[in-house]
Amino acid sequence: MKTPIRVAVTGAAGQIGYSLLFRIASGAMFGPDQPVILQLIEVPFEKALKALEGVAMELDDCAFPLLKGMVLTSDPKVGFKDANWALLVGAKPRGPGMERADLLKDNGKIFTAMGEIIDTVAADDARVAVVGNPANTNCMIAASKAKRLPPERFTAMVRLDQNRAQAQLAKKAGTDLTAVKDIYIYGNHSPSMFPAFAHATIGGRPAAEVIGDDAWLRDGFLSTVGKRGAAIIAARGLSSAASAANALVDHVRSLVTPGAVHSVAVKSNGAYGFDPAVWAGLPVRTTTPGSYEILTGYAMDDFAKSKLAATNRELVEERSFVAELIG
Ligand code: NAX
Predict the structure, then answer these.
(1) What one-character-per-residue DSSP string does 200-229 give?
(2) What pTM was computed for the model?
(3) Best mutation site among 118, 239, 263, 318 for ligand 1 pocket (most ligand atoms within 8 Å of CB)
């Protein structure tokens, strides 16, 4: 039996948490032979902590053989202690009438503190995955506070966008989902993100050739994927949760699987013309478990370049709103 790994999850009593924790404890994230200890972090309010207790009771009731322990806490110093993975799901939601800049600043303060604490108390091999929005910028802020853990350990999730894009291409082409390959997300996790369809293939042929509808690819496809979160809120009355949790399982699973090629928001280091200091969705190949290289060889046409420039502008603007928190 392998040694259990410690997985810290913030926002554990929230919507995504409720779909996520059971998948982690079942082995879907780290594999069927990897025991886990869940370190569940919530805000210090009775309602949230009570709800967290209920979730923990249900986890007990699943009798997952891989679940070797749980820590329930509102103290991040306890929750992140010795964590091998820190999954940052909790964030302050945008309230009515709240400006985007204020949302960025409020979350910036939360992610500043988290970055500092993780850097101080987490395991030496700690990896961080940020889901809480605005995910790219929150991730950049947390990474900026780390002195011990290098920036490449901090990733943000754009996998939900990749999964959405793959599903839409399969639907349009009328093919099985597994026939769609090489669709990667560039830029921000926001409607400005760019799924680079020119590189996608369906059944081994260029997706554009199979679909034969360039206007749809440039317009309907991009807006459907970009506005999918809003469409789900309009239909369900709540934001995406099970699909977001599933995407985080995929994000981490791919990051611990050498050879996997997938979309992750990482420090761009200038790839594809992104500002070197922003965290941008990019195609990466996992090298060793938890480590990756950015794939820089995809050619971009003028249309793609204009989309990359637009999503980069948004990331740079987000960075400017939180400039005083970084560094
Ligand atoms: P919920 O509001 O259901 O749950 C969030 C939970 O986080 C709450 O229980 C809250 O008490 C807790 N929380 C807030 N601040 C915290 C802190 N500082 N420490 C610990 N816990 C804290 O939201 P949910 O639907 O679960 O969504 C969570 C986050 O994911 C949101 O920021 C949301 O915008 C973001 N999303 C990101 C996605 C992505 O692809 N990157 C997609 C789905 C989702 O919208």
Answers:
(1) -EETTEEHHHHH--HHIIIIIIHHHHHTHH
(2) 0.97
(3) 239
